[in-house]
Amino acid sequence: MIEDNETIDEFLAHRSTDVEEAVRKAAAAEIMPRFRRLAADEIDQKSGPHDLVTDADRLAERYLTEVLVELLPGSVVVGEEAVHANPASYEAIRGEAPVWIIDPVDGTRQFVHGDDGFCTLVALSVRGVLTASWTYAPARDQLATAVRGKGAFLDGERLFAGPPAPGRDLTIATSHPDYTTQEQKRALLGLWTDGVAPRECGSAGLEYLAVARGELDATAFSWEAAWDHAAGLLLVEEAGGAHLTRTGEPFRITGGNALPFTAARDTATARRVAGLLASSV
After folding, report:
1. What does the DSSP 8-state code read for residue 28?
2. Residue 71 in contact with residue 19, Cβ under 8 Å?
3. Binding-site annotation: residue ranges
4. 46 & 177 share domain
5. Beta-strand relationship, 99-106 and 76-79
6. Are 231 and 253 in contact (CB under 8 A)?
7. Domain with 218 in it: what CATH number?
8. Residue 3 neighbours by CB under 8 Å, 6+ apart
9. Does position 221 have pLDDT exceeding 80, yes or no?
């Protein structure tokens, strides 16, 4: 088992390209051959019509699980589909072993509908601290990476989110209403105010990438599942952004957050959005 951050740093220095290769191969082998070619029996519902899973999700996660654990002996995996099958496996995210956090197809609904707005998300966490992430949009052939303290990159180019341009409305991607409680709906109503332009989100991973690129000002999400957020939160942080819950604390991938929470292109914007989310509760 990995014992300290120095060893993780050494792993990332020498093996991060192997992780990137694994993500690309999973997409090439299991996701892209099914893109716009899914048969009806390759698609299932989990909790409802907006919560879909496909053979691509299951097989890509299986591929990544096998490869990543072999790359980093002693590590464990928290994957969306494995947790759906065995909810208790989510507890590994709070353990001592390094954790690979995997969303094999983030934006499954878009994938099923033939939209290219989906991605594969992988993050590495040690004792609840995100250390590295990979966000791959295979239909767009875009790969964004981040390593804590080393920066965020898209296809090798450094990302800087920067502050929003003054004098224009903040564009904020928000949770779909189907995934919000009544209290969260009230909190999100705080965004319907002058100077803010909220819209429903697409793939969470690609929304985080848009924040890191300075194309989207902030997100406002109401669920905690680490596979949706881990990769993107580190990407935003390393691009100069920030994340806060509606009570003003950084989001914790281990859970227990006051929801909704925001990730934004800079600290000032994160504070503004968190304040709006708190104002209606």
Report:
1. I
2. yes
3. 80, 103, 106, 228
4. no
5. parallel
6. no
7. 3.40.190.80
8. none
9. yes
Neighbours of 271 (CB within 10 A): 15
Do both 93 and 223 map to the same domain?
no
CATH of the domain at 129: 3.30.540.10
Binding-site residues for Mg(2+): 80, 103, 106, 228
Q: What is the pLDDT of residues 170-187, one digit of tens each?
A: 999 999 877 788 899 999
Quick one: which of 280, 23, 46, 255 has its CA closest to 174? 280
Which domain range does residue 183 map to?
170-279
pLDDT digits (tens, 9 = 90+) for 137-147: 999 999 999 99
Q: Nearest Cα to 126, choosing from 244, 233, 224, 8?
A: 8
Please report which residue ranges of 97-217 form alpha helices under DSSP H.
Answer: 108-112, 182-188, 204-212
Cα angle, residue 61 at apex, residues 144 and 47 outer, rounded to 5°: 105
Residue 271 CB contacts under 8 Å (≥ 6 apart), including other chains: 244, 248
Segment holding 221, helix H or strand E: strand 218-221
Q: Is 232 exposed, middle or buried (0-12, 13-18, 19+ CB in 10 A)?
A: buried
Say whether both 179 and 236 belong to one domain. yes
Task: Spell out the residues 6+ positions from residue 239 whose beta carbon is closer than 8 angstroms to its own.
Answer: 146, 151, 152, 159, 160, 161, 211, 212, 213, 265
Instruction: Provide the token pair at 9.
Output: 């740093």
Tokens 């509760």 correspond to 281
Q: Is the peptide bond before 250 cis (omega within 30 degrees of 0)?
A: no
- What pTM value is reported for the model? 0.94
